[in-house]
Amino acid sequence: MGTAEGWLVTWLITGAGGMLGTDLTLRLRDQDEHVVPLSRDRLDLRDASSVRAALREHRPATVVNCASWTAVDDAETHEAEALEINGSSVSVLADTCADLGATLVQISTDYVFEGLGSDPYAEDSPTAPLNAYGRTKLAGELAALATDSYVVRTAWLYGAHGANFVRTMMRLAAERETVDVVDDQYGQPTWTGDLSTQIIRLVKSDAPAGIYHGTNAGRTSWRGLAQEVFALLGLDPERVRPTTSDKFPRPAPRPSNSVLGHDRWSKAGMPPMRHWRDALHAAWPELARNA
């Protein structure tokens, strides 16, 4: 994916105030890249004219769209609003990037799959979202792919710069003797630091446009992740007690299997992301500082 001749090599990050957007901005700055981080208060993706104006002003070589409606349960009753952010706005972003010769990286989700199987989902597996959030994110994928952009699906994100499951478990470990965590949903905990590095590597490669799965390797349940957090805190992992999803009913159904395959990375000549447990251990000092 090339850079238009004569342009500054600029990265523009939408949703830059979020967990992934923050880590991506920090890592780009660590590499002395020119980055324009636009949080929601600086760029509302629902305003098409503002989106076009921002891209024309900054003339980025790469746009990474980290902005998203992420309130999964609320999307069930506000699907039109979620679609506006997760789908319709991506069409404007993708078309503007195409007009200006910029590369678009659209961040998507494991929720585009139904999650009823047991095997990892390949990049070209059929999509079948179980909930409104997944449907709206799939609309964003299709809009991005129509302009030969990158789509990076991720899942179970955690990091030091936002609310997430890992930080919640760190807090509950200090507040409760035991915690009950579901043990029948499986996925890949993914550190935003590793995902940021992988996105940068993807854009700087000669990898073809299309779908890539940006999750750390391996698989575990939510309980397995919580137990690893307790162990890193020096606590007994058995304080995390197993329970089932039906004990925590939610408006939006969740996929039971969110494990994603990573074959496309090796086909593009790049290594996949490391094992989720190794990533969590590497992230731990930063997580502990920001607890």
Description:
This protein is an alpha/beta fold and 291 residues long. The protein has helices at residues 19-30, 48-58, 72-75, 79-100, 132-145, 165-175, 192-204, 222-232, 263-267, 276-289, and strands at residues 10-14, 34-38, 62-65, 103-109, 150-154, 157-158, 179-182, 186-187, 190-191, 210-213, 220-221, 240-243. A six-stranded parallel sheet has the order 2-1-3-4-5-10, with helices on both faces. It has a two-stranded parallel ribbon with strand order 6-9. α1 links the parallel β1 and β2. The chain is globular, with a radius of gyration of 19 Å.
Number of helices, counting only DSSP H or I runs of 4 residues or more: 10
Low-confidence parts, pLDDT < 50 over ≥5 residues?
1-7
Query: In CATH terms, what is the architecture of the domain at 10-164 and 189-217 and 259-275?
Result: 3-Layer(aba) Sandwich
Strand proportion, as a percent range, falls in 15-25%
Mean pLDDT: 94
Strand order of the largest sheet: 2-1-3-4-5-10
- Termini, distance in Å? 38 Å
Q: Which sequence of SSEs, written as H and E, runs from N to C?
A: EHEHEHHEHEEHEEEHEEHEHH
